[in-house]
Amino acid sequence: MPISTLSNTQIQSGLELSKEYLESINEYLWTLSPMEIITWAIDHLPGVYQTTAFGLTGLVTVDMINKISIERDQSHLIPLIFLDTLYHFDETLDLAQRCQETYNVPLRIFKPMDVSTTDEFEREHGIDLWKVDEDTYDYLVKVEPARRAYEELNVKSVITGRRRSQRGDRENIPILEVDDTGLIKLNPLALWDFQQVWTYIRANEVPYNALVDQGYKSIGDRHSTKKPSANGQDGERDGRWAGQQKTECGLHKDYFKMRAAFMASKKKRQEQQQQQHTATLITA
Question: Which stretches make up the Phosphoadenosine phosphosulphate reductase domain (predicted)?
Fold first, then answer.
């Protein structure tokens, strides 16, 4: 059956896609423009949502989905999932609100489990968790909330804003892939570079983060995002996790390894707390 006419009932989980069939789908998608890729996803992928932190690439995707929706005389066809880490810049939170209003898009917000403010999170996990145990931090603010979102919303496929020009782990990403949990991931702008994204933003008057005008290209949590150097030699994401040997936040790493590492760290902390409690009783 031609991939262009694939029925969305034929893909219930990425695990059902063989490596060979996935490669053939990618060969087909490489021939399409980003707008055509997104249109294909709307017509063929099951349970599709867009995950976004409202970076420039994600904003282009939101705008393209909006144009497709208007063409079809329908409301915004793909809902958004936004993971509020509790450490976003105020400008990012303002942008999320503006996008929701501009595009009339369903926006589902997920925060770390059992907390709703930064103060609550830090009372539970410490002020510098992001620095002293980055894997646990990533699991708590991104990985676990994302899995919770996928389960609650019955998400089978997600559209991401990853591009090859962002380098690091993204340098060779395909357009369509399946992660270790069976989640289908679509990267419709995988081949675009920063200039193509920025040109689209300006040409289509897409709302964007005010920090971009200050020189930021990639914007994450406020504690670990810095403005790239003025000489323009930094890569797009070099302002993220300054001084740390990482290029991804955990969402696009092996989920089971991330969860196992978190559980091991949690067990170790509990054992240390028990030892401290025992030592206190002995000396009391």
Answer: 50-226
Whether residue 3 has pLDDT greater than 60? no
Among 45, 62, 65, 249, the one annotated catalytic: 249
- SS3 category, 49: strand
What type of residue is 217? K
Which residues partner with 107 through β-bridges? Answer: 80
Residue 268 in domain? no
Strand partners for 271: none
Helix (H, G, I), strand (E, B), or coil: what is residue 22? helix
Percent of the chain with pLDDT over 90: 62
3-state secondary structure (DSSP) of residue 83: strand
pTM higher than 0.90, yes or no? no
Question: Partners of 186 in the beta sheet?
Answer: 159, 176
Residue count (the chain): 284
For 186, phi then psi, to 5°, come to -110, 130
Q: Is position 99 annotated as part of the catalytic site?
A: no
Which amino acid, residue 134?
A: E
What residues pair up with 177 in beta bridges, in sequence order? 185
Q: Which residue has the tokens 């936040």?
A: 249
Joined tokens for residue 122: 């830090």
Cα torsion 239, 244, 250, 251 to 10°: value is: 10
Tokens standing for residue 26? 């990618």
Considering the domain boundaries, does residue 92 fall inside one? yes
Q: How many domains, in total, are found in the chain? A: 1
Would you state the pLDDT for residue 2?
A: 42
- Please report, rounded to a whole number, the percentage of residues in the chain having pLDDT higher than 70: 82
Segments forming the whole domain that contains residue 152:
3-253
Residue 250: CB atoms within 10 Å: 24
Rounded CA separation 225/119 (Å): 20
Single-letter amino acid, residue 6 = L
Residue 116 is inside which H or E element, if any? none
Asked if residue 48 is part of any domain, the answer here is: yes
